[in-house]
Amino acid sequence: MSKKFNTSKLSKQELASHLKKPTGEDGKEVGRQMNKGNKHICLNSYNVLNPKSNSLILEIGMGNGYFTKNILSMNPNLECTGLDFSQTMVDEAMLLNKKLINTKKVSFIKGSIEKLPFDNNSFDYITTTNTIYFWPNLIDSAKEMYRVLKPTGKALIGYRSKELMDKIELTQYNFNKYTKEEIEKLLDKTGFKQIATEVISEPDIDFDGIPMSMSGLFTYGLK
After folding, report:
1. Torsion-angle region of residue 45: left (phi > 0), alpha (psi -120 to 50) or beta?
2. Is 162 left (phi over 0), alpha (psi -120 to 50) or beta?
3. What is the pLDDT of residue 163?
């Protein structure tokens, strides 16, 4: 049985806008719906990232931070910084993760991938899921990830294939779609090494009455 993805009262254009940058009360609701639709691709991305103990992780576009606890649970002594360019999502993530924030293992800040507010060589791992469709400039954004990653660090991009995205109506609005080959070429051009992609199938999702077979692509490389 496919899982229902509730697009609520919003038009396709409005929903697409909130998927890019959730704002206000509607944005908060879209954030909660994204937790349902993104559950498998987010958790699978953490498994592919496979962070070692005593590591610093940057998650770009963490939404309302619902899955932050999951990445921290993977190994001892992990620390995670979540960055999102939606202030609504940053505020929600801080409310949802008060206890983790108090442990000093988690922080959330507003910022954009095109100009990451971190020093060079700051993180052991970088992960970002379902954000690449909205990057303002692919190569500049990838270079920023490379810059703030420590030597030998691992960066991972989780996304849906262009073939799958073309079947979803709302992705007609302000989504840029990419093939696996395009993302691998992007990382190669940026300077990443040992580039590879894993494809992981997920349970079907029902988009407005249309069952959709889902899978996530996870392209990663080392600095």
Report:
1. alpha
2. alpha
3. 94
User: CB 163: neighbour CB atoms within 10 A?
Assistant: 11
Per-residue pLDDT tens digits for 129-175: 999 999 999 999 999 999 999 999 999 999 999 999 998 877 888 89
Helix, strand, or coil (residue 117): coil
Domains of the chain, each with CATH number or no CATH: 3-109+118-222 (3.40.50.150)
Q: Give the residues across from 197 on adjacent strands.
A: 219
- Tell me what pLDDT residue 206 has: 77
> What span, in angstroms and rounded, lies between the C-alpha atoms of 8 and 188?
40
Let me know how long the chain is: 223
Whole-model pTM: value is 0.92
HSE (CB half, 13 Å, CA atoms) of 76? 0
Among 129, 134, 159, CA closest to 58: 129
Q: At what angle do helices 87-96 and 24-37 cross, to 10 degrees?
A: 60
Stated as kind and residue range, the H or E segment containing 41 is helix 39-49
Distances (CA, A) of 139 to 28, 85, 123, 182: 30, 18, 19, 11
pLDDT value at residue 1: 36
Residue 159 has φ and ψ, to the nearest 5°, of -160, 170
3-class SS at 175?
A: coil
162-211 confidence digits (pLDDT tens): 999 998 877 888 899 999 999 999 999 999 999 999 999 999 887 767 78
